[in-house]
Amino acid sequence: MLSILRFSFHVRLHSLILWVSGVSGISSSLPSIPDVDQLPGSVLRVLGNNPSRMTLRGTNVYIVGSGSRRLLIDCSDGNEGFVKNLMEVCQRHGVDEISDLLVTDARTLGSRWWTAAIEAKVSSSESVEIPP
Known about the structure:
By secondary structure, this protein is α+β, with helices and mostly antiparallel strands. The chain is 29% helix and 19% strand. The protein has helices spanning 2-20, 80-92, 114-119; strands spanning 36-39, 43-47, 60-64, 69-73, 97-102. Strands 1-2-3-4-5 form a 5-stranded mixed beta sheet. The longest helix has 19 residues, at 2-20. It starts with a helix and ends in a 13-residue tail after the last helix. InterPro entries: RibonucZ/Hydroxyglut_hydro. It comes from Phytophthora citrophthora. This is Lactamase-like protein ptaB.
């Protein structure tokens, strides 16, 4: 338990140092990047529409694979703008189903949306219901 508390304190201390040193304003000086980008291989990157000092322009969410079933890596925070954008990207690229979700950061576990997304098909005829 002590090591968890020590780790938590360490992370908060570093966050405070970054905030005090002005890193929080860095996102306004970063170059613009597209909301959706085709990366090498069968990877699409979708920005999470949640800019902050920790995510800079937004959480990077990846749709991996080819065909109608794909893997989703991370899922932002489930905000409506991101969900709408993700649905449009899936439709545009022929993704009918998100078969699996790989979560790399505990912050995305708070998303109300990710469990619904993993259970629902994301075709143009259906939409993901965002639970309350």
